[in-house]
Design a protein that fits this description.
The protein is α/β, with parallel strands linked by helices. It has seven helices and twelve strands.
Length: 283
């Protein structure tokens, strides 16, 4: 005769386990804060500039998805970690987020709050130029600019040496129905060692820009183009993966009858990662 199955634990026992886990999570967060406090003391003597570390953050978000399992939605996990990371970054070196809301306030605010939480100050601007200019006047503020389109070539302000650069593209993890899906460039001034260079972003000004030229470049890179009627050309923001790929862009332009007037590296960011239904990431 087989033994009867053990009785399931009572609701009270399960709730006590949850309370215990909640306390452990809180204590671990406070322990993380203690380490950050020590880190601040070290940085006062060893490091200057913005505390934002795009390469580290992109790697952290990828590891998060790779180890995630269970019933908790990845949206919840990502948003919790984004708030943790951004808040502790803010504690190290306070900064503000300057957002270009020219294409719509709600989508940009959702992106800012999802990725940086409510502790980090949020400042809205009605153009990309204004957001970038505010960041340029600061020590470590961030500008959030929609990545998909633009009416003006705001990225030209990033060409000069010492100017802020594009340092990230949000969201770090792309997926269907992302709660903050608006593609956004993050612009700031951070140490070269903190940058991730999987995708380079270039400001390229061309003559002879037309629909045929645009079609020739579209398979090679992600491009935002603003017409420049004075030169029968355009100002381009070109995002390309891999070293040496800019030469392919130049060659394609020449073959399509255009010419490059100028080019300047204006930043870089991590490769876009898509989260599959099973939680795996892929470039």
């Amino acid at each position: 005769m087989s033994n009867p199955p053990p009785a399931p634990p009572s609701l009270e026992v399960l709730r006590q386990e949850i309370d215990s886990i909640d306390e452990q999570v809180h204590r671990l967060l406070m322990a993380r804060g203690d380490i950050i406090d020590r880190l601040i003391q070290v940085k006062q003597t060893q490091e200057v500039g913005s505390a934002f570390r795009p390469a580290r953050e992109a790697a952290m978000m990828r590891r998060l998805v790779e180890r995630h399992r269970g019933i908790l939605p990845i949206d919840t996990i990502e948003s919790i970690w984004r708030v943790i990371i951004s808040t502790f970054t803010y504690v190290q070196a306070p900064f503000s987020v300057h957002a270009d809301v020219s294409i719509g306030e709600s989508a940009m605010r959702d992106s800012a709050r999802f990725h940086f939480g409510f502790v980090v100050p949020y400042v809205s601007h009605f153009s990309a130029q204004a957001a970038v200019e505010a960041t340029a006047r600061s020590k470590g503020d961030l500008a959030l600019v929609p990545a998909a389109s633009s009416r003006t070539p705001w990225w030209i302000a990033l060409e000069a040496e010492g100017a802020p650069k594009i340092i990230a593209r949000l969201p770090f993890l792309e997926r269907a129905d992302h709660p903050a899906a608006l593609p956004v460039f993050v612009v700031s001034r951070v140490a070269d060692s903190a940058m991730v260079t999987e995708v380079e972003t270039w400001s390229v000004r061309v003559s002879g820009w037309n629909a045929e030229t645009a079609r020739a470049l579209s398979p090679l890179a992600e491009i935002v183009a603003v017409p420049d009627t004075a030169f029968d050309g355009a100002a381009l923001l070109v995002s390309i993966s891999g070293k040496g790929s800019l030469e392919k862009i130049r060659t394609a332009l020449i073959e399509a009858g255009a010419s490059v007037r100028s080019q300047a590296l204006v930043g870089s960011h991590a490769t876009r990662y898509t989260v599959a239904p099973n939680g795996a990431t892929r470039p």
